[in-house]
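Q: Convert this sequence to structure tokens.
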Amino acid sequence: MSEFPRRIAVVGAGPAGLYTAQALLTSDAEVSVDVFDRLPTPYGLLRYGVAPDHFKIKSIARALGRPLKSPAARFYGNVTVGMDIDAEDLRRHYDAVVYATGAQRGRRLDIPGEDLPGSAAASDFVSWYNGHPYAANPLRLDSTRAVAIIGAGNVALDVARMLLSPVDRLADTDMPNHVLHALARSQVTDVHLVARRGPAEARFTTPELREIGELPGVETVVRAADLAGLEMPPDDRNAAGNCDLLRSWAARATAPPAHRRLHFRFHLRPARVSGHRSVEALRCADPQGQRAETLPVQAVLRSVGYRSTSIAGLPFDQRAGTIPHDAGRVTDSSGTVLPGLYVVGWIKRGPTGVIGTNKADAADTAKAVLADLPGLPRAAHGNTDGLAGLLERRQIAYVTREGWERLDRLEVELGARAGRPRVKVTDLSLMLATCRGEETRV
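A:
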């Protein structure tokens, strides 16, 4: 009786997890790969994190989904590891387990007033406008005129662009209908992008910055004082491109007529979110604490990075927000490798890099898995249907590849009716009913 294929689980169907599955399935090793995700849908950050108007990036979903079409792969959606099944369940059913759970939580500022209504992580707003089934809009757009976004990266620019874009510019995206309707009723006229450091240290990319400067009806406001005495990092073309754009905006004698404005506020450190029942202002100071400034805003979104959450049964570095590892192999607190456990993506290296960064990272982790497989013991429950049976006994309504494909077809069909690439379904019960093949009305 053959010992093959070796069974591998990948926890997380985002880019890191799917790139890892692809690297494993296209190797010379005889393996089967089961991919788990807590949502009924694959693609993770690509589906729920990338801005809806970035069509080119979203188009990689076609290639990213290839491993799920392999006869040697299975998809288990709507399964939360740590709740529906645990790390030990996976160890009993798989020879190796790769964790690609990403970083879901926005980092905190730890300043007074941060928990007032109207103050939230930018990632919550991103999830809402991307149609995440667990997300609610943290902003009252119909009564908010000014928003402060704390951070100077591409996510901060994405959020500003969604708040300031004319809604007809977003009408051909895959945004859910209720999001488009909410943005159409938005009263936001001013967005303040607040950065602790200067323009040369901003982490947004020049194409993203240029894109927001081309929005119709939006004025970009830059203070000349923030650009004085800039010291450019050597050989940093991105920083040079950013500063050139900011200088051109600051030097304009007159700005085109605009109904909305994006204010770049550099060298400001958030100190306090103030308000009685909700956000009314953001108090800031310069890095030396010598100059204070109050921004009259009704909402504050912090875009200062993401943080991973721990998984029961696995070691976790609270300070770094990652699972400790050695070249992708999970280690305990003493640095000893825990055989058969691996990490990839943000849970491995922290929330850095772009979607493409995960491809090389996945190749490295897959290489470690494949090198170790011959020496790893076989799982106690090697039956290929064992895990499915466990989920059924626990009455977990897991979603298969065929179920996801039903939902995918429905979203594309809804999009075709509206002349759009797709319209996302966001109601979880409707998503699951569609995946089960039940007749639904949308």
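The first helix runs from residue 15 to 25.
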